[in-house]
């Protein structure tokens, strides 16, 4: 599907989305940090899966993502956000 199949308005929206992907991922991670502090059990595991996907969206090295997830520490995740 090419961009020429979308109207100019739609093309602008799509372009702005891709231009702001990193900002969107960082905002999502910030929300997840708050939720992780409060979550327990299965809900916490689900939130960590979402965090892992958001970190992949930021194109962090796989070994760093694995380390953050394995530590199960919202503080560590918050540090990643503050470094960006």
Q: Which features does this protein show?
A:
84 residues, mainly alpha, 5 helices, 0% strand
Outline the fold blueprint.
Elements: H1 8-19, H2 21-38, H3 41-57, H4 62-71, H5 74-83
Helix pairs in contact: 2-3, 2-5, 3-4
Q: What does the model show?
A:
This protein is mostly helical and 84 residues long. It has one domain. The chain is built from five helices and no strands. The longest helix has 18 residues, at 21-38.
- Reading the helices and strands in chain order gives HHHHH
Oligomer: single chain
**What Rg, in angstroms, do the CA atoms define?**
16 Å
How would you sum up the global shape? elongated
Average pLDDT level: 92
Distance between the termini: 33 Å
Q: Give the domain tally.
A: 1
Biggest sheet descriptor: none
Give a short synopsis of this structure.
The longest helix has 18 residues, at 21-38. The chain contains five helices and no strands. The chain has 84 residues and is mostly helical.
């Amino acid at each position: 599907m090419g961009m020429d199949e979308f109207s100019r308005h739609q093309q602008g929206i799509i372009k702005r989305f891709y231009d702001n992907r990193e900002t969107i991922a960082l905002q999502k991670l910030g929300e997840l940090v708050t939720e992780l502090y409060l979550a327990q059990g299965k809900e916490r595991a689900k939130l960590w899966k979402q965090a892992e996907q958001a970190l992949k969206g930021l194109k962090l090295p796989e070994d760093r993502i694995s380390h953050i997830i394995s530590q199960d520490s919202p503080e560590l995740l918050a540090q990643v956000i503050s470094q960006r």
